[in-house]
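Protocol step 4 of 6: structure prediction from sequence.
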Amino acid sequence: MNSVLQQIQPESPEPKLGPEAIAELNRAYAPLDFEARIRRLYEDFSPEKVMVTSSFAATSAYFLHIISGIRPEQTIHFINTGFHFPQTLEYRDYLTRLFKLQVEDICPDSHHLRYSQEQKLYETDPDLCCSVNKVQPLEQVKENYDVWVSSLMRWQTDHRASLEIFEERRGMIKFNPMIDVTREQRDAYIREHDLPFHPLVAEGYASIGCSHCTVKGEGRSGRWQGKPKTECGLHL
């Protein structure tokens, strides 16, 4: 394997909060709904140290509608792997205009991307493909922040079913304000506010990632079909 693509696991930095502090945050935020959790986050933590990511997939409009309404100036980081469906990029641009978002693309190293394309890593080694095109680029950005806000929900995968509102991940505070939102609650909010779904949802795509690793299907069944893979590695 080309040495430039060797996966090097960085040393885990010292956690910003200890287990007791994380547990206390979970107790304090548990009674709150999604919107109230976001509002309180910006009170409890420095807004400039809050990182928000979005895949602009499936039903990201719910997550982004709430965030943009509370902190319009919040930067939304989008990992542009180079393998997205054209519809995903169009959806990103549409929501950016609709919600007046401040979106910043995170791109993989050009050499890594080219190697991935030439070697078709998405077929031969999807874990490595995700690592160099998604995980590593985001790791470099995460160094500038204390808290990472994601839109994970427990019903999506077995791994996510075990997550709490707050957790410590490799020295960073991970905040999952939507973790206990049900699919029905999410879809009801989208209908109530007349928010747009990702255009591929109407074609039978329930979970949407890179084009080479996504097919139609319910839940996450359309991701990495035929492989024992359910997560890209960002949230592990």
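Step 5 (inspection) to follow. The CA atoms of residues 101 and 192 lie 21 Å apart.
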